[in-house]
Amino acid sequence: MTAAGAQSPVDLHRAAFTMSSRPLALLGPDGRLSDANSVFCTLVRRDLASLVGTSPDWIDPWRDGRVVLSSPDGSLVEVSLALVPLPGGGTLIDLDPWPEARQRAAERAHREMRAIIENAYEFIGLLSPEGYLLDANRTAMSFINCDDLDVLRGRPFADTPWWAHSSEERAQLIEAIQRARQGEFVRFETSHRGRDGQLAYVDFSLKPVTGDDGAVIYLVPEGRDITQRKRAEDELIAAKLEAESANRAKSNFLASVSHELRTPLNAVIGFSEALLSDALGPLEPERMRDYLRLILAAGQHLGALVEDILDVSRVELGHIELAEDVVSPDEMVDSIRRLFDPYAIGGSIRLTVALPSSVPRLRADSRRLRHVLLNLVANAIKFTPAGGSVTIRVTVGPEGMGFHVEDTGIGIPAEYHGKVWQPFFQSDAQHARPHDGAGLGLAIVKRFVEALSGQVSLDSSPGQGTRVSVLLPPERVIAP
Fold this sequence. Notes:
Pfam families: HATPase_c, HisKA, PAS_4. It is an enzyme of class 2 (transferase). Keywords: Kinase, Membrane, Phosphoprotein, Transferase, Two-component regulatory system. Residues 186-238 form the PAC domain. It catalyses: ATP + protein L-histidine = ADP + protein N-phospho-L-histidine. There is one protein chain. The protein is of the alpha+beta class. The protein folds into four domains: 9-98, 2-Layer Sandwich (Beta-Lactamase), CATH 3.30.450.20; 119-225, Beta-Lactamase (2-Layer Sandwich), CATH 3.30.450.20; 231-317, Orthogonal Bundle (Helix Hairpins), CATH 1.10.287; 325-476, Heat Shock Protein 90 (2-Layer Sandwich). 40% of the residues lie in helices and 24% in strands. The strands form four sheets. A six-stranded antiparallel beta sheet has the order 2-1-6-5-4-3.
């Protein structure tokens, strides 16, 4: 009987057998293997489950001394075999590889490990503690389009092509090497210029390897290409910002359109009440007609705004229906000029038309095209201060017919050029807005022009005015 907590001799023998650094196995009285330690399994290249209950017929000859092991893959290993009889009829098998066999086993293990490292997805290398390059795997070499490690071996890692693209990131690496030399594991995100010239993002680390005395003997640099993940993160952030921008634009639209609807409604209701309540006393016929004209103008303004909103809804749903007819561009442009002349004169703005000597007719939806030009001219006058000018220009060429509305107004910052075509967007919405409008004009212009198979473009900068160009394809131009 053993004392409480003490191990029995059997337990001690079992632990010694299992933990031994020598390849050991037990053979039962029936000549079959009953147990083996992990070192034995590794040497004979078989797992314990496949050994137990089998005869070791892969050891030849079966006697003490130098023998040959046949591995499952057909390879042969020379070892020294010692057979130790055990009480009860069993036998202890003790193997010891010969020096040549140890060397071959070590070489095989090295080749296997090298195969793993060379074919790893990660960039893996080996540095001296001072940061000189000793080795790099195929993945790392392929990244810089280099197949000769010898031209880089022995150079400071910071001076190799992996870090040539950025002095800032090279300095970051040098600082990381200094920290890793002190035994610290260092990890950071960096970028590298790949063989295709594109910038790739890398999750990079430096791991110190210590010897028996605890001193750092190697540094292992490792990198994983995370470019796709970074791009996905950037796209996610961009989508989030775009969604937030769209929400702000719609909020601005609701605020703007509420104001736009309320103003003509107030005029309609106010003047109607004045006429019906006799609050101003008997009205002369001329004054009554003035009130009615104001009510009519407010109603027309309200109707135009509602029609714009409906147009955007139809466009978003893909319900634009074109009524093709023949259009005389010079007559259309002249009628638009005459329509806006009073507004331009009232704002001290010079409104002019520039036409070529001969303007061919177009096959288009005249109502939609007129709506496009009305929106463009209205915008130009709205955002042009007193003393400025607005020009409606028509051009004809091999690329088709162009309608250009140019102004000397406040202009649009470059960062908004791609957004002004979105419904509800207004570049001045983030400031106190001095201009009326719901932000639908250019959105409608773009949709209608595209429905006509045309293109619309914007050229503008703050303080330098704006030029919006509509180009209809040559197949819409009717030859003279």
